Amino acid sequence: MLRPQDNATRERKCLNGLWAFRLDPEGAGRAAGWWRGALAGAREMPVPASYNDIVPDPAVRDHVGDAWYQTTVRVPRGWAGERIVLRFDSATHRAVVWVDDALVAEHEGGYTPFEADVTDHVRPGGAARITVVVNNELTWASVPPGHITETPAGRTQNYFHDFFNYAGLHRSVWLHTMPTTHITGISVDTGLDGDTGTVRYAIDQAGTASVQVVLRDAQGTEVASADGATGLLTVPGVHPWAPGDGYLYELEARLLDESAGLVDSYLQPVGVRTVEVRGTRFLINGEPFHFRGFGKHEDAIVRGKGHDDALMVHDFELMEWTGANSFRTSHYPYAEEVLDYADRHGIVVIDETAAVGMNLKVLVTYGLTGIPSTYTEDTIGSATRRTHLQAVRELVLRDRNHPSVVLWCIANEPESGSQAARDYFAPLFAEARKLDPTRPVGFVNMIQDGPDTCALTGLADVVMLNRYYGWYKDTGDLAQAEPGLEAELRAWADRHGKPIIVTEYGADAVAGLHTVVDTPWSEDYQARLLEMYHRVFDRIDAVVGEHVWNFADFATRPAIVRVDGNKKGVFTRDRRPKTAAFTLRRRWHRDKSR
Ligand code: GCB
Questions:
Q1: Cβ–Cβ under 8 Å, residues 572 and 553
Q2: Residue 415 among the catalytic residues
Q3: Ligand 1 atom having least distance to the Cα of 330
Q4: What span, in angstroms and rounded, lies between the C-alpha atoms of 147 and 134?
């Protein structure tokens, strides 16, 4: 599915703005056909944004079920004869869409786009009513999973991940056109041989036309071209895409009719680079790469998970200020604008599905009893896996052309110590590899399943570890935590011989709390804990990455271990630095110059 584009043959109209909005706590709207007319009793709601924090009302914030959005769009007159498509960049966690009275799209999964051909349902020059019902329920069949309990006070959503279950239309909505004979997909794989680059491409189309591709450098000079739907372009004296150097070529794909007239075109940015795991090294363009950066969230006051360009650019600028060169899209695929920015700026990305909270064993540590096994037909079972498989497909197909993405992450902290885990995950790894043989694949491991018991590491190219020595373990005791962390990392290195990326390490800190002696929750303890990890990382050769948890404080549901959310950010939720931000800046800028 290609993104909307304004070019010689395509046009787009952005539908962002204030939409009519109404919650449906009774779940009455589908049976009553709320899409058939103007949404009664609606209030205004911004798109994109999570709806939860816009209205100061727990009934909105904690709503479980359907929420309805509606807008009316005027279809441009000049679009007659074109194929007209309605696209949602995301709807969390699932949606059904109507144009006037016609159902045009249904989609499961809150972080990937979907679209519908609405040509037959709209009239150029006319108005069309667009109604969307967005549902935020997490069940055993959704990714991420959850379950709902009926209480006398209403329905309560339970889930096993540590961030607030924001919902709504989080990203842009588009109406866009393309010719009836059009390009439906583009994929590029790149290679390097000395200073010669290669771009292997494949162009899919609907209808019949001949294909031509042209590759231009950043100055717009043509450097290669070819005819045919698939082929290999060679670029002598290539300028590779590299960490810190987001150099992009542009591939123009064109469909031509018999008289060589232009039928359709699409512009695809291309970064020429290679990624490879060799022994305990993670190589980009054949050079060892060390990941410095963060696990992040799409999270902000007021807008929740709604995409916002101002916040995105600010976050990237702050990451650059710390000296970070990479981040992980914890714990779901991020807005495509984020990956575009990373491509252009040479920031490296670990790209993750929304599979988080798939470990019921950890609930025991919260004192809960009677917890079922993680992998059963009544919990994480074949229904979950079907959704998860689709989530892997949609992630890889959406993001495979981004040079910034160097590693697929299939899940965060699933229970990984059993044959059942292996049976569940093996097909998911296989699917990612089938769709993209060029990138390494991994998952993020949790401390319960260590180097001797983890049944999934054998499926992965890299070891990704979230570790909380000095926080959840050896709380407040860095002297005890340091040897524990070192022993564990050495065991992983010895047993598995793969590169290790520590994908999470950190401590909560309440901004403004300072202490002389090591005291959890203080800014000073957070900074000293990071320093301890860094000493250990520097002693272990196989550690090729350090991603602090988290870039910024973020919202969670209420819990006695959370103070108005998770405070492991090195920036506050409004992006002010804690002491730890300066600690990272000192280390990472020094590392940069080494
Ligand atoms: C983790 C999770 C992350 C949590 C974090 C924490 O291991 O991957 O989602 O927020 O720990 O702060 O507990």
A1: yes
A2: no
A3: 9
A4: 18
Q: List the catalytic residue out of 82, 415, 504, 546.
A: 504
Domain boundaries, the chain: 12-178, 182-270
Ligand 1 atom closest to 446 (CA): 7
- The separation between CA 571 and the C-alpha centre of its own chain, rounded to angstroms, equals 20
- How many angstroms is it from 570 CA to the middle of ligand 1? 14
H-run or E-run covering 183 = strand 182-193
Prior bond of 135 cis (ω within 30°): no
Region 182-270: CATH code:
2.60.40.10
Is the CB of residue 496 less than 8 Å from the CB of residue 457? yes
Would you tell me how many other CB atoms lie within 10 Å of the CB of residue 426? 14
Cβ atoms of 530 and 548 within 8 Å: the answer is yes
Element (H, E) at 45: strand 43-47
> What phi and psi values does residue 486 have, to the nearest 5 degrees?
-65, -45
Ligand 1 binding pocket includes 162 (Cβ within 6 Å): yes
Q: Distance between CA 412 and CA 352 in Å, rounded?
A: 8
Q: Is 296 in the pocket of ligand 1 (CB under 6 A)?
A: no
Is the model's pTM score more than 0.85?
Answer: yes
Residue 405 CA to ligand 1 center (angstroms) comes to: 22
Q: Which two structure tokens, joined as six digits, stand for 7?
A: 């070019």
Q: How far is the CA of 393 from the centre of ligand 1 (A)?
A: 25
Question: Ligand 1 centre and the CA of 162: distance in Å?
Answer: 6
What does residue 553 show for φ and ψ, rounded to 5 degrees?
Answer: -60, 150
Asked if CATH classification 3.40.50.720 holds for the domain at 12-178, the reply, yes or no, is no
Question: Residues 120-131: pLDDT tens digits?
Answer: 999 999 999 999
Q: Is the CB of 82 under 6 A from ligand 1?
A: no
Residue nearest to atom 9 of ligand 1 (CA): 162
Phi, psi (degrees; rounded to nearest 5) at 427: -65, -25
Contact by Cβ (8 Å): 434, 472 = no
Other Cβ atoms less than 10 A from the Cβ of 367: the count is 6
The residue whose CA is least distant from atom 13 of ligand 1 is 162
Per-residue confidence at 199, pLDDT binned at 50, 70, 90? very high
Beta strand extents in 296-448 (DSSP E only): 326-328, 348-352, 405-412, 441-445
Q: Is 413 a catalytic residue?
A: yes
Q: Is 469's C-beta closer than 6 angstroms to any atom of ligand 1? A: no
pLDDT above 80: residue 364: no
Which atom from ligand 1 is nearest to the alpha carbon of 556?
Answer: 10
What is the CA(412)–ligand 1 centre distance, in A?
9
Strand 94-99's sheet: what is its strand order? 43-47, 17-24, 66-74, 127-135, 94-99, 102-108
pLDDT in tens, 471-485: 999 999 999 999 999
Residue 414 pLDDT level (bands cut at 50, 70, 90): very high
